[in-house]
């Protein structure tokens, strides 16, 4: 069993109350170092631009910029996004950025990727928001490109959605040449490449991408939903001759170690409405360590979950992060 933790970056209104600007970044670093000291396997950020559930004039730190900073602020904890959005950066650029972060962190990157889902911020930032089939088709091609460019190159790809390393162009001296491929150096430290997570549980399209490209899956649901998606993922793996056990199953969870009345206070202080608080609490893991551990053990045993990533709404100033590490994780492991 492994356990990760989300670092507050503002997207979920978890930096409200911290002085804007550099002090918020300092708060993020402090939480990351606390997570490392508490023994978590990994730390995670979200790849988003606007706060939720409403877009407010509050900080949301850009994911890859912040992760690079956290790579320097920590020493051993692994680093990732849950999950990187394929819409926001071209696959070739994503291969370059992620390889650099793996080198900067000396091989600590967990590469989690998805097709993108949040139309509000996608359109607000000037990106087209395509139908699901197009977004998932683009994701499948992007993963091929990223893995290909992680080898260094020269690399060429020509698909339905992307074309990389092809074309007749002028070189540095203005001479016309035919491209022989794109180059991506430095290559990642991890071999054959950083672990690839594919996030999303779409049963007709996304899980087929997971079966073909992922080392780890990440989708949502209770034990019953999780078991159904596991069975489908197993089936898609078998269709292409892959052992389903090759793909580790993971789950994100909202956690508050303590009474529900206290989490109400924390969420209200961040500016959430009563309706938004009720939404957050639905399915969350709230209460004393033994009861939380019992629910997680059920998912471990019944749904084959082997990696939990916990989000704590009061991570900046509360104690759930440390209590979960010291009082819940030992009971589940």
What does this structure look like?
Strands 1-2-3-5-10-11-12-14 form an eight-stranded parallel barrel, surrounded by seven helices. Strand 11 (216-218), helix 7 and strand 12 (248-257) form a beta-alpha-beta unit. It has helices spanning 22-38, 63-73, 91-104, 119-124, 132-149, 206-213, 223-239, 260-269, 274-281, 289-303, 320-332; strands at residues 2-6, 42-45, 78-81, 84-85, 109-114, 157-158, 163-164, 168-170, 176-178, 196-199, 216-218, 248-257, 285-287, 305-311. 41% of the residues lie in helices and 17% in strands. With 333 residues, the protein is α/β, with parallel strands linked by helices. It has a single domain, classed as Alpha-Beta Barrel (TIM Barrel). The chain is built from eleven helices and 14 strands. The mean pLDDT is 96.
* CATH homologous superfamily placement: Luciferase-like domain
- Overall radius of gyration: 20 Å
Calculate the mean pLDDT score and round it.
96
> Strands of the biggest beta sheet: in what spatial order?
1-2-3-5-10-11-12-14
- Secondary structure tally, helices: 11
Number of beta-strand segments = 14
CATH architecture: Alpha-Beta Barrel
The low-confidence runs, each spanning 5 or more residues with pLDDT under 50, are none
The fraction of residues assigned to DSSP E strands is: 15-25%
Output the CATH topology.
TIM Barrel
Order of helices and strands: EHEHEEHEHHEEEEEHEHEHHEHEH
Structural class category: alpha/beta
Keywords, separated by commas or semicolons:
333 residues; alpha/beta; TIM Barrel; 8-stranded parallel β-barrel; 11 helices; globular
């Amino acid at each position: 069993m492994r356990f990760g933790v989300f670092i507050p970056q503002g997207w979920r209104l978890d930096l409200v109350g911290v002085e804007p600007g550099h002090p918020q970044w300092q708060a993020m670093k402090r939480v990351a170092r606390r997570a490392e000291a508490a023994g978590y396997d990994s730390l995670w950020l979200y790849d988003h631009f606007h706060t939720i559930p409403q877009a407010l004039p509050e900080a949301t730190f850009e994911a890859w910029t912040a992760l690079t900073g956290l790579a320097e602020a920590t020493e051993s904890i692994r680093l990732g996004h849950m999950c990187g959005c394929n819409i926001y950066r071209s696959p070739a650029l994503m291969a370059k950025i992620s390889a650099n972060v793996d080198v900067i962190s000396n091989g600590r990157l967990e590469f989690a990727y998805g097709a993108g889902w949040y139309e509000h911020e996608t359109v607000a930032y000037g990106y087209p928001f395509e139908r699901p089939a197009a977004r998932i088709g683009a994701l499948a091609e992007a993963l091929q490109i990223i893995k290909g460019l992680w080898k260094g190159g020269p690399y060429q790809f020509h698909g339905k959605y992307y074309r990389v390393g092809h074309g007749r162009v002028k070189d540095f001296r203005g001479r016309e040449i035919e491209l022989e491929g794109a180059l991506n150096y430095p290559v990642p430290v991890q071999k054959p490449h950083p672990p690839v997570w594919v996030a999303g549980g779409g049963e007709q399209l996304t899980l087929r991408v997971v079966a073909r490209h992922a080392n780890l899956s990440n989708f949502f649901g209770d034990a019953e939903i999780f078991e159904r998606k596991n069975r489908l993922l197993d089936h898609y793996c078998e269709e292409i001759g892959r052992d389903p056990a090759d793909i580790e199953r993971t789950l994100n969870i909202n956690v508050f170690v303590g009474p529900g009345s206290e989490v109400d206070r924390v969420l209200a202080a961040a500016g959430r409405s009563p309706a938004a608080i009720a939404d957050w609490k639905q399915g969350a893991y709230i209460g004393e360590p033994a009861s939380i551990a019992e629910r997680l053990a059920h998912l471990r045993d019944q749904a084959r979950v082997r990696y939990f990533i916990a989000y704590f709404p009061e991570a900046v100033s509360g104690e759930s992060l440390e209590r979960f590490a010291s009082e819940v994780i030992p009971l589940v492991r």
